[in-house]
Every structure is written in C-alpha cells, then in structure tokens.
TrEMBL record:
It comes from Rhodococcus sovatensis. PANTHER family: FAD_NAD(P)-BINDING DOMAIN-CONTAINING PROTEIN-RELATED, L-ORNITHINE N(5)-MONOOXYGENASE-RELATED. Keywords: Oxidoreductase. The keyword Oxidoreductase applies. GO terms for molecular function: oxidoreductase activity. Pfam families: Pyr_redox_3. This is NAD(P)/FAD-dependent oxidoreductase. Gene3D superfamilies: FAD/NAD(P)-binding domain.
Length: 494
C-alpha cells in the first residue's frame, strides 16, 4: 500500500487551508478524504433557509484567496461559491476522495493506517479537519421516534420539503435557529419556537456592497487594509470577554438590551427573551430580523416554563400540558463540538486511544497535537474556538505550527514528531488558568463551549494574535523527533 505524505480528513475550510499550506511547502503527495458526496464542508452541507456567516465576509476568508464579495455578511450561496473557488483554484477536487467516511486511524510505528468506508489508506502525517460542527446532536426527548410528520436537523435540511403553509416547530434558539426563524416565519401557517434559554442578540448591520466596492475588495493593498480594520475592531471584544465585565455590561450588553427594547414592544415577550447571564457566555447572535419574527402573530415562543415534555405521533406535548400539532419538526440543537470533536476512534502509540486520553476533557498542545499521537494534527481542536473574530484566522494560525512541525521532521530525515507530555501539560494548565474569570467560564451560563466535565474546551482565552504568535514559533524542546520506526528516538533540544 502506498504511504502518502499527508492525508487530510475533511474538505471544509480547515482541509482547504491545510492543503494550500502543504502544497505551498512543496508537499504534493496528499489526499483529502471527504465523507460526503460533495466537497466544501459547512457551507455546502448547511442548506437551511437563511444560512449566512456572522463575521464580515472580507475577514471570513482565506488571507491568500481574495473574492468579490457582494455583501458585508455573506449568505450561504455566496459562501458556497467562495468554497468552490478555493477548491478549484488550488486543484483540490482532483486530490479529494468523496464518499469516504473515516472509521478508524491507528499509528503503526512510522505511519498512520486509516480505515474508511471505501478501503484503507496509509499516511506519514494525518491532518484531521473534520471540524467541530460536523456531528449533529438531537436530544433524546421521549417519543421522538413516534412522530409521524417530517423531522430533520438544520444540518440535514430537506430542501425538497415545502414548509409553506405547514405547522412547524423548531427546537432550539441558537445561531442556526436565529437564521431559520425569520426565513420561514412569513411562509408557514404557524411556527412554534421551543427555547431553553434566550440568547443575547446584537444588531447585524448588514449591507450590500456597490459594484465599485466589490472590485476594490480584490485590489491590494485595499483588501488588506479592509481586513485589518475589521480584524482590529473585532479584536477589541476580547477585552470585555476576558478582562472587563464592567466594560462588557456598559457597552455590549447595554446595546443588546436597547436592541431588544426597540424591537420587542410586548413586555411579556421581552421578558422571555431577556437572558439572565452575561453577554458572551453563550454565542452572541447578530440579527435585525429575529425579534420582529418572534413577535409575529403566527409565531409562538415557548420558554423553559413551557418546554417539551414528550413527542407524540402528531406533535408535541408541553410541560404545561398543551398539545401542539405540527407537520414539521426542526431540530436546531447544535453539535457535539467538545467531547465529540473527532467522531472516529484514534489509536496512537502503544495502542492508546485518544478518547481515553481525552477523559475527562479534550486537550492538546496549541489545540493541535497530543502526546502519544505522532504526526497527528487536529484543525480546530481543543481551545481553538474564537468568539469574537474569524475562525479562519485561527485555522491559518494552526497551519503555521503544522507546517513547521512537518518541516522539522523532513529536515532531520526523521519519521515522526511528537509533542512532549510536559509541554502539553504546561500549555493546558496555562489555557485553563487563563480561562478563569472569562465570560465563557464565569458568565453565569452553561454552553456548548463546555465539555461534560465543565471545562471550557471550545474557546481560546485570549487575543487571536497571541495564539498566532505562539503557533508561529516551533519549539524543538517541546517535541520529540522520532528517528526510527521502532523505539529509537532522539530528543531535539533548543
């Protein structure tokens, strides 16, 4: 069996950034494995009505891949076109094997053995870029399997189903629901929204670009200046999220409360929509249309006092005893983005399972690599999430580390690189020490940012430029370079 230089798992932005970085390094013996029949990840998979990005388009893009964006916050169709542009311009479709679901990977001394639904692969290095938002979660409400109508998760929206004139229930009120609700409310007969906890909502301030502005966004250095202006304006948010609750309340939370008061005149509805935790503890929603939609006469908001008791053949029975008959049940209930960030078994050196190492919570050096798992790199791994700026910025920062680690192996004529346990432990201790006092840890809520153990494992507790600075410096003393496929190895020190 041919041993590829690199196998990349996933063809979304993480996989695309990895492939670009490796090709730029002259590493062209690479294969991308994609479990779906199409390429592109999130913005090809999520086809629910209203899907759009919540970071400004000029920044939510790969630094070396300019695009003629049509609006400040790109909608799904435009993001799909951008994804296709990146894939095609870098020749990635020819390097991708679709309909190939990874079932298991195992280290065999000098390479990874990869078991998939379409056969086996082997690679010296593996880059997992399956992404944190790829494994949908549906809560085990009693009776869910008995429902005789149509039901699906927003991640698997049935585009052939016509929701117009239907009685619809949507379970969840987070980022996806906030986009679906305004998109379908005008068309449905009645929409029931089941909200466990309200989210903070800020004005979106979206707008279309003029034809001239679109062209200018492809011109250097104008594009770089626009990206920099957006980046630094967003980066200031971490000051409130981490360093100053007073500033967070005085600026962001006050603006959110004003937005709520302006758009929701009904006092009872406004009370249901007012969070009891600090803004930022859960993902902040950007929307100018959510609140008006929730106040529409054909929309009913069910809060925690009137939640779901059970699912029946015809709909929902609430905790207050109300029977709600529906035709369509939409699950907008998120993903297993912390404990289940890698959905397949990963077996490292000495037969150790990553799931065991990650008990009680996921952890990784620079959120990217784990002791005992040589040559394995995890894109958007533990504590690489970012709540205030573009996720692609962090992904590109991870690439800085990954290519330098691979360079170290190639330069030494070695077979593997592995972070030391001490370096990973020091890094993890620092991350969770820095997490204390942040809005994600102590903001008064329980969110998907936290693992089942209560550790915040989704977010990076600091400025994104800090992470990038750390990732740019490969520290030899923090790694072991394996010089032979067996037990012989050589410590490379600074």
């Amino acid at each position: 069996m041919h041993v590829h230089s690199v196998v990349i798992i996933g063809s979304g932005f993480g996989g695309q950034c990895a492939a670009k970085a490796l090709l730029d390094r002259g590493i062209d013996d690479l294969v991308i494995l994609e479990r779906r029949s199409f390429l592109g990840g999130t913005w090809r998979q999520n086809r629910y009505p209203g899907a759009a990005v919540d970071v400004q388009s000029p920044l939510y893009s790969i630094a070396s891949e300019p695009f003629e964006w049509t609006r400040m916050f790109a909608e799904r169709e435009e993001l799909e076109r951008y994804t296709d542009h990146v894939l095609e311009s870098n020749g990635l479709p020819a390097r991708t094997h679709s309909d190939t679901d990874v079932q298991r990977i195992e280290w065999s001394g000098d390479h990874w053995k990869i078991t998939t639904s379409r056969g086996d692969y082997a690679a010296k290095f593996v880059v997992n870029a399956s992404g944190p938002l790829s494994t949908p979660v549906v809560p085990p409400f009693p009776g869910r399997e008995r429902f005789q109508g149509t039901q699906f998760h927003t991640n698997d929206w049935d585009t052939d189903f016509d929701h117009a004139g239907q009685r619809v229930a949507i379970v969840g009120s987070g980022a996806s629901a906030a986009q679906v609700i305004p998109a379908i409310a005008p068309d449905v007969k009645h929409l029931h929204v089941f909200q466990r906890t309200p989210h903070w909502v800020m004005p979106r301030n979206d707008r279309e670009f003029t034809p001239l502005q679109r062209r200018l966004l492809r011109v250097e250095p104008i594009r770089r200046l626009v990206r920099a202006a957006i980046y630094w304006s967003l980066e200031t948010r971490i000051i409130g999220f981490k360093y100053s609750r007073r500033a967070l309340k005085a600026v962001a939370q006050r603006a959110a409360l004003k937005h709520l008061a302006t758009q929701v005149p009904d006092a009872d509805l406004r009370a249901k929509l007012t969070p009891d935790y600090l803004i930022g503890c859960k993902r902040v929603i950007l929307s100018d249309t959510l609140y008006p939609s929730l106040g529409a006469p054909n929309v009913t908001l069910h809060d925690k006092n009137d939640g779901i008791a059970e699912i029946t053949e015809t709909g929902v029975v609430t905790t207050s005893g109300e029977r709600v008959d529906i035709d369509l049940l939409v699950w907008s209930t998120g993903y297993d983005a912390t404990d289940g960030v890698i959905s397949y078994p990963v077996i490292g050196r000495d037969g150790r399972a990553l799931s065991d190492i990650w008990n009680p919570y996921p952890r990784a050096y620079l959120g990217t690599t784990v002791p005992g798992f040589p040559n394995l790199f995890i894109v958007t791994g533990p504590n690489t999430g970012i709540g205030h700026t573009s996720a692609i910025f962090l992904i590109e920062a991870q690439m800085e580390y990954i290519v330098r680690a691979i360079d170290a192996v190639r330069a030494a004529g070695a077979v593997a690189v592995e972070v030391t346990s001490a370096a990973e432990q020091d890094y993890t201790d620092r991350i969770h020490r820095d997490m204390e006092g942040t809005v994600w840890k102590d903001g008064g809520c329980h969110s998907w940012y936290q693992s089942r153990s209560g550790h915040v494992v989704a977010m990076f507790p600091g400025f994104s430029f800090t992470f990038r600075r750390w990732a740019k410096r490969f520290r030899p003393a923090a790694h072991t370079i394996h010089m032979a496929p067996t037990t012989a190895k050589e410590e490379v020190s600074a």
